[in-house]
Amino acid sequence: MKAHDIMVREVYKVMEYDTVRTVIEKFIKYRISGLPVVNDHNEIVAYISDGDIMRYIGKRKDYYVDNFYYSFVIKDDLEDFQEREQRLLGLNVMEIAKRKSVTVDWNENIEDIAALLGNRQIKKVPVVRNGVLVGIISRGDIIRHAFKSMI
Length: 151
Description:
The chain is α/β, with parallel strands linked by helices.
């Protein structure tokens, strides 16, 4: 079984020139926690998750993820949550999105995708064909497919 056999083809996404406000609106509207960020050619340039939002509005300014150092400049340590929240809404998505997005090819084996999701501890992965976003696969999609005979 291949990625294209079970992927969801209607992918919620944001454009690289969108604001974080657009991201949060989609998170709320579609009850999702992450979105691929694409350019005008529908190529993935980044990925933004609810974790990226939490890191920005939290008090901590500096952190490490996968051996990469990230730092957000906060004007005033006394700045409150609501001020950070409001500033966040106006930021360009690329200011806080992860530029190194994990993707899988549309012809990838489902078993390999399951291993990737488990080992990397990620919830979903965008599917690309010739570098263009064509779908998305979540942990739930794989579980539903693998155990459909139980339903």
